[in-house]
Design a protein that fits this description.
eight-stranded mixed beta sheet; 258 residues; 2 domains; N-(1-d-carboxylethyl)-l-norvaline Dehydrogenase, domain 2; single chain; 45% helix
Length: 258
């Protein structure tokens, strides 16, 4: 069984930056950091005494693990440039199959961080659940032990479970933030501070810790209050926002038998 002590990171963006931090914090040696932009590779490598490279063909064969943290749409392009077999290869994508790595290593898998990550965050305070998948039971056990050193919340998910988690995360985070954007604009137009909504947002999230989101649902759509729904629609400045409001209200009403 492979004992992972040294890691090469392929990527130097937000997710790669978090992995570099948490790996170094937990005693792993980072051999190399690759980026197509040598300045990005230099910047991240300097923090962890790693070798920066901007040519994937310069990957050293001496790492125990090669961690690919790239944008979903560039994985295949970067992988096609590899010139050496890899000891153990993993990617961090919620969207891509582990099988994209099968040509490059006999041991491969996924370590997917279910979190929104930015270089501007304080990584010391960031809680990151990790989802692992291996190409066989041995690989999976290695990744499970590896991930457990990086996070207190580690789960084994198969490919379809990971795809579903990624989809759910888009609804729960990305789409929710789009709703925040609409709410922010409505408040801004009336010179109302965004901070007025923050306690409500926190309370809404906290409720889902003890009940299902459907049970936690409140508001005029759930009550079937047609008068308020119509007045809200009349307040909205564009047809697009009217359609969004109506679509979400219809969904809530159908979910709650109205």
């Amino acid at each position: 069984m492979i004992d992972i002590k040294t890691v090469t990171i392929v990527g130097a963006g937000n997710v790669a930056s978090w992995f570099a931090f948490i790996l170094a914090k937990n005693g792993f040696l980072i051999n190399q950091i690759y980026s197509r932009s040598i300045s990005n590779a230099n910047e991240l490598s300097a923090k962890y005494s790693a070798e920066p490279i901007d040519d994937i063909k310069k990957l050293s064969p001496n790492s125990d693990l090669y961690l690919f943290a790239l944008k979903d749409d560039v994985y295949l392009e970067v992988l096609d440039e590899l010139s050496i077999p890899l000891t153990f290869a993993v990617h961090t994508s919620g969207f891509n199959s582990k099988e994209i790595l099968s040509r490059y290593s006999k041991c491969f898998g996924v370590v997917y961080p279910c979190q929104t990550i930015s270089k501007t965050f304080s990584f010391n305070e960031l809680v990151v659940p990790l989802c692992v998948e291996g190409n066989n039971s041995d690989s999976e056990n290695i990744l499970l032990n590896f991930a457990a050193k990086l996070s207190d919340n580690v789960k084994i998910l198969d490919e379809q479970q990971r795809f579903s988690l990624h989809l759910a995360a888009v609804f729960a985070s990305n789409f929710t933030n789009a709703m925040y954007d609409i709410a922010f604009t409505i408040l801004e137009e009336k010179k109302i501070h965004w901070e007025m909504l923050l306690p409500l947002l926190q309370c809404t999230l906290d409720k889902t810790k003890t009940m299902s989101p459907q049970q936690a649902q409140t508001g005029p759509a759930k009550r079937g209050d047609a008068l308020i729904l119509q007045r809200h629609i009349e307040q909205l400045p564009t047809k697009e926002l009217e359609q969004i409001y109506q679509l979400l209200s219809d969904f809530i009403q159908k979910r709650n038998g109205k």
